[in-house]
């Protein structure tokens, strides 16, 4: 288990719910999701519609960042393969000459 997960487990109420969802009974995951939906509903009731807009914009930025990270990782991986292939091809051409 990573240090980040252990840190989240130590948060008083949220950590207890999260720990139970991860290590608890099989149906604890569904109760955790239900609790999150209930908390979101209460927050929307208290704060209003702007909360949903802020959450949607935040999630859009997070998803776009994840897409960028995933595609950039593939690009970096291809560059290292190309560099190795170029180095071996250059070495082979140098041996012929």
List keywords for this structure.
2 domains, 90% helix, mainly alpha, membrane, transmembrane, 97 residues, 0% strand
Number of strands: 0
- Secondary-structure-based class equals mainly alpha
The figure for the number of domains is 2
Mean pLDDT, to the nearest integer, reads 85
Q: Indicate the proportion of strand residues.
A: under 5%
Total helical elements: 4
Helix-strand sequence? HHHH
Which consecutive residue ranges, at least 5 long each, have pLDDT under 50? none
How far from one another are the termini? 55 Å
Q: Helical content, roughly?
A: over 70%
- Outline, from the CA principal axes? elongated
Indicate the radius of gyration in whole angstroms.
24 Å
Largest sheet: none
Keywords: Membrane, Transmembrane, Transmembrane helix
Transmembrane segments: 30-47, 53-76
Structural features, described:
The model has no long low-confidence stretch (mean pLDDT 85). The chain is elongated. The chain folds into 2 domains: 47 residues, no CATH class; 49 residues. It is built from 4 helices and no strands. The chain is 90% helix and 0% strand. The protein is mainly alpha-helical. Keywords: Membrane, Transmembrane, Transmembrane helix.
């Amino acid at each position: 288990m990573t240090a980040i997960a252990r840190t989240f487990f130590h948060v008083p109420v949220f950590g207890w719910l999260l720990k139970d969802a991860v290590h608890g009974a099989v149906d604890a995951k569904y109760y955790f999701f239900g609790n999150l939906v209930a908390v979101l509903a209460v927050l929307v009731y208290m704060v209003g519609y702007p909360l949903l807009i802020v959450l949607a914009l935040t999630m859009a930025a997070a998803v776009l960042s994840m897409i960028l990270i995933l595609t950039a990782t593939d690009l970096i991986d291809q560059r290292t393969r190309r560099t190795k292939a170029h180095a071996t091809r250059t070495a082979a051409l140098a041996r012929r000459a």
